[in-house]
Amino acid sequence: MHLIDTLEARMAQLDAQHLRRRTRPTQSPCEPHVKLNNRDCLAFCSNDYLGLANHPAVVAALQEGAGLHGAGSGASHLISGHSQAHEALEHRLAEFVNPQFETCRTLFFCTGYMANLAVTPALAATGEPTAIFSEALNHASLIDAVRLARGARMHVYPHGDLRTLETRLAQETATNKLIVTDSVFSMDGDIAPLPQLLALAERYGAWLIVDDAHGFGVLGAGGRGVLEHFGLKSPHIVYMGTLGKAAGVGGAFVAACPQVIDWLVQKARTYIFSTAAPPALAHALCTSLDVIAGLQGHSRRQHLQALIAHLRERMASSSWRLLSSDTPIQPLILGSNETALAVSAQLEAQGLWVPAIRPPTVPPGTARLRIALSAAHSINDVDRLADTLKALQ
User: Is residue 186 flagged as an active site residue?
Assistant: First the structure.
């Protein structure tokens, strides 16, 4: 059959380029020491930055939530799927991030991808001429969101290039402007210059849409994310935080001034037309927020920063280069797809799971190991990784 033959030919091309992707089923909960292919393995690949995915209190809250609210929601939020648990989580999230806003409301989504697909198209659908300014290294969900913004003019500015961004903002005649950026870039681990981006948003009357998937729970003294990290507060900010990474469960939320949240409820297609996430997840996330905000969350963030510093010190003399990053994402650049896959396989043979990241996720010639640290790791875990990497050079 021609259609199947075409797919098989394209898959053969991916194999030749070392670009085919496969799932890797685990036989244990998400934590540093996992079972992969029924073998014990030390993992450096999850985004469970605070080690909450298998935290006993969070697991117990999920079980309790299922007992209280059942297994599913049954409908979209605007039909009958918005439970008391969802409402309680949205209020709890608004209280948690409120110091970074004049007034704040939140909206809970099934995933971060769905949240991002909601915000940009909805804010572009005001009926005014719209221009969107998107960071070159934005996550795929932000890129797709820009593509879904019908009728908007799109500008992609080079990574971290504030001068080019300001030039394009000044030249643009659209009355509705949106600056869209990740906070922590998921493959490089660096942090966007949010104070300067906010200054530009306020100067040119633009919305600043911030995807803090990899900052929420990790950055800031209280784990409130990149806005707390920089001490930012503005009605121009529309903030997305993911709840399946540092928060350890699943889903995401958008925080903004009440008028923005009201508009999303009217116009955000991924909110209006999706079955609501199981209310048990929302119930568990309230406990997760308690951990993040409490003394335990503070100590976990301190330990995580110590692990980051230790890994960077251990790898400072390596011939393989770690990109500059103060976040749990520590990319080790290896260059070719083949080399990245080979080193990842050699690590796995020694019981270490560190995935190879290849194009199109990263630019050609920059294939890498994406080392992801968690507060559940120990110093000895990091030493084992560093020793093995140095032995492979």
Answer: yes
